[in-house]
Amino acid sequence: MFGDDFGARDPTAGEIASNFTDKVLGNADTSHIIRGPKGLEKLVGLATRKCVPCENGNLHPLSESAAYTLRNQVPGWRLEKTDQGSLCLRQEWKVKDSRAGDELIKRIGDIAEAEGHRPEIHMKDDSAVAAELSTHAIGGLSENDFIMAAKINNLPMADLQPKAKQRFWA
Q: Which domains does the chain carry?
């Protein structure tokens, strides 16, 4: 689809020898996501779907490979293991203050209520909110958790987050 020349190139031997990565800003574990055309997720994305009730035994935990595939559709969410060894999705947001944190928790709670989902949401401190998604009834991740993550990603949050400091380069 994209051809062999799509994406980043491998570093040259000279770049590696110069230790150029010591000067790179960013995170080594940054995941790069190829997005489809603008508006495509409104037609076929996870955020357009509805969570399926899990009382009937119709849901089963996703395999780790299936979870990693779906994780690519919810930027910012990390797959982690719980203390019990099952997979969960985690995300953390910086907020202006505790009032903004309470508002973010309310917004996420409104989505959860509409979807019949029960995420774990809490204030980490006065400037951060954390959320953990998993389907407790099946002891792991289901597609419902990714649907919730996609809907949370679509929430307006700019008014709750601290303003970025202006950078001046010397």
A: 40-153 (3.30.1360.20)
